[in-house]
Design a protein that fits this description.
two-stranded antiparallel sheet
């Protein structure tokens, strides 16, 4: 089935129940704080965790092992 456009700068998403809706792509801007995580999350500008951005209090106990 064809998917009709949701309008300019709209992104098609689903929630945990599978309900579909169009949302404005600017709603994704809050995902990266542009300090510890930078980028727009696009192919041209992917998200990047900056060096030294992940600090101990942000990690669960035993979250990082020698294997990782």
């Amino acid at each position: 089935e064809d998917i009709a456009s949701g309008g300019n700068d709209q992104v098609l998403v689903t929630d945990a129940t599978g309900a579909v809706e169009w949302i404005d792509k600017s709603d994704f801007d809050a995902i990266a704080d542009q300090v510890t995580i930078t980028g727009l999350g696009t192919a041209a500008d992917p998200f990047k965790v900056e060096d030294l951005a992940i600090v101990t209090d942000k990690l669960a106990a035993d979250a990082v092992t020698n294997d990782k």
